[in-house]
Amino acid sequence: MDRIWAPWRKSYIRPKKARERGCLFCRLRDAKNDRQNYVIKRTAYNFAVLNRYPYNNGHVMIVPKRHVAMLDELCDVEKLDWIELLEDMIAGLKRSLRPHGFNAGMNIGQVSGAGVPGHLHLHVVPRWSGDVNFMPIIGETKIISESLDSVYQALTRKPRCGVRKSVERNKR
């Protein structure tokens, strides 16, 4: 039997501090240390953050700053800012990780599989030809080849993800 060692992931199964209460995304929105929290970019109405439990390398989430559960609760300017941030993240992922495609989607509500059901968020998952193999099916193991720190550095390296102007600047 082959073993794959990833001791750096120990912090996910045995965290040093007690689990925090309240909304994860609201805590990230209010936090000051973006690097430590893997917040890639903030805009007027949204922010982009790396998923700490990624489905694939470069798994990003686009999150409204307002705590809303449903898409129809966002106003038009928030939605436009959300889509522009999505475009910026895809452009940054293309530039830094060179994926062959993307999955983008939302799990709205707990029954749909949302890990944070009360705060809307959009998953952006880079995909490569051949990135799905026998390991997840037979071995029940997903191999993530890059650390979150490495992906964060690649996405925040100059030029920064996000070459578009913010919605606020476009209104002038």
Task: For this entry, give a set of tags.
172 residues; alpha+beta; HIT family, subunit A; disordered C terminus
Structural overview:
This protein has 172 residues and is of the alpha+beta class. The protein has a single domain (20-171), classed as HIT-like (HIT family, subunit A), CATH 3.30.428. Helix content is 33%, strand content 15%. It is built from seven helices and five strands, in the order H-H-H-E-E-E-H-E-E-H-H-H. The protein has helices spanning 10-13, 24-30, 34-37, 76-97, 134-138, 148-156, 167-171, and strands spanning 39-42, 46-50, 60-64, 101-105, 122-127. A five-stranded antiparallel sheet has the order 1-2-3-5-4. Helix 4 packs across helix 6. The relative contact order is 0.19.
Secondary structure layout plus pairing:
Blueprint: H1 10-13, H2 24-30, H3 34-37, E1 39-42, E2 46-50, E3 60-64, H4 76-97, E4 101-105, E5 122-127, H5 134-138, H6 148-156, H7 167-171
Antiparallel strand pairs: 1-2, 2-3, 3-5, 4-5
Number of helices: 7
Strand content: 5-15%
- What distance lies between the first and last C-alpha atoms, to the nearest angstrom? 62 Å
Q: Taking Cα atoms only, what radius of gyration do you get, to the nearest Å?
A: 17 Å
Overall pLDDT confidence: 80
Strand order of the largest sheet: 1-2-3-5-4
Q: Quick one: CATH superfamily?
A: HIT-like
Could you describe the largest sheet, including whether it forms a barrel? 5 strands, antiparallel
Helix content: 25-40%
- What is the CATH class name? Alpha Beta
- Quick one: how many beta strands? 5
Q: So what's the overall shape? A: globular
The name of the CATH architecture is 2-Layer Sandwich
Low-confidence stretches: 165-172
